[in-house]
Amino acid sequence: MRAFARASILAALSLLATSNAGFAFERGASFTIMPGTTMGLPYAYTGTPGVYFYGLGNYGTFSLPRGVSPNVGLGPGSINIDVADVVPAIVWTTPWTLFGGRYAILVSQPAVSVKAYGAIPGAGWYTSESGGFRNTIFAPINLSWSLGNGWHVGAGVNFSIPDARTTGLNGLDSGGQPYWTIEPTFGVSYLRNGFDLSATLLYDFYTRNRYSGVTDGQAFYLDLTATKKFGRFEIGPVAYIAAQTTRDRGGNSMEFLATRGAANSCEPEPFNVYNYCVQAAKAGVGAKIGYVIGGGELALIATQSVLHHGQGGSDGWRIWTQFTYKLYSDSTK
Question: pTM score, two decimals?
Answer without folding.
Answer: 0.82
